[in-house]
Amino acid sequence: MTKIFLMKLTKIQPSQLYISSEKLSELTKNLDSAELDSFDPIPVKRLGDQLIFTDGHTRALAAFLQGFSKVRVVWEVDELDWEAYEICVKWCKDEGICTIADLDRVVSQADYEALWLRRCKKMHRDLAQEEDSYRHHM
Fold first, then answer.
1. Closest CA relative to residue 71, chosen from 84, 61, 80
2. Who's near 116: CB < 8 A, 6+ residues apart?
3. Which domains can be identified in the chain, with CATH numbers?
4. Mean pLDDT of the chain
C-alpha cells in the first residue's frame, strides 16, 4: 500500500504554468473546506534536489485557496518522462512559479489548451525529434 503523508505546499515545486478555471471551479464547488481529507493525495517526486508536483496542480491550488498550508501527498510510482518534467520545472522557475501560491495563472479551458497543452505537445515532439536524431547519428 502506498503511504500518504502531509507536506507543506510551500515545499513543493509546481511543474505546470497554467490552471483551467473550469476544472478549478468544478473542483472547488465539490469540496468540504473544513476537511483536508476531501482532497485526493497529490503525487510528488524528488527531481534533483527538489520535490515537484507530478500531477494535481488544480487540487493543490484549490487547497491553497481554501487556506490549507499542507496537503496530503503520495510518492509518484509511475515511470514518467523526467526530462520533460525537468523542462516544465525550468519553465515554471523562469516565470517565477516556485510554489503553488505563485501559480495564479487561472485561465479558461480554451486558453489552457492553447497556452499549456499545445506547449507541452510541442516540447514532446521536439524531444522525440532529438531522440531520433541522436539514434541516427550513432
1. 61
2. 16, 17, 18
3. 4-136 (3.90.1530)
4. 90
